[in-house]
Automatic annotation (TrEMBL):
EC number: 5.1.3.32
Localization (cell): Cytoplasm
Pathway per the UniProt entry: Carbohydrate metabolism; L-rhamnose metabolism
Primary gene name: rhaM_2
Entry superkingdom: Bacteria
Subunit structure: Homodimer.
Keyword Cytoplasm (UniProt): yes
Known catalytic reactions: alpha-L-rhamnose = beta-L-rhamnose
Signal peptide: none
Residue stretches spanning the membrane: none
Recorded GO CC terms: cytoplasm
Protein's organism: Martelella mediterranea DSM 17316
GO biological process, one term: rhamnose catabolic process
Keyword S-adenosyl-L-methionine: no
Name recorded for this polypeptide: L-rhamnose mutarotase
Amino acid sequence: METIAFRMNLNRGQTEEYKRRHDEIWPELAALLKDSGVSDYSIWLDEETHHLFAVLKRSDDHRMDAIPDTEIAQRWWAFMADIMETNPDKSPVQVELKKMFHLD
């Protein structure tokens, strides 16, 4: 298992809507993530900057690279595009974060 983290940007005033949408995550999206080798996925909000901090574990044989090509991921990105910073293809702008410390 590998743990990775990344940052995304939430539009101001969209905290409650972002939370609501994730509280009601589509079952087929959750299944896609799990089937792709993703587990223990959390997203945290820095309320001062509106940065979203995501951390997840992925299996050694994960298939995360194929997720963007799926219809469900494309629909989710379009659904979320009005409340967060996105790329031209509607995928969320993500900045990989470098691990600086870990304590088991």
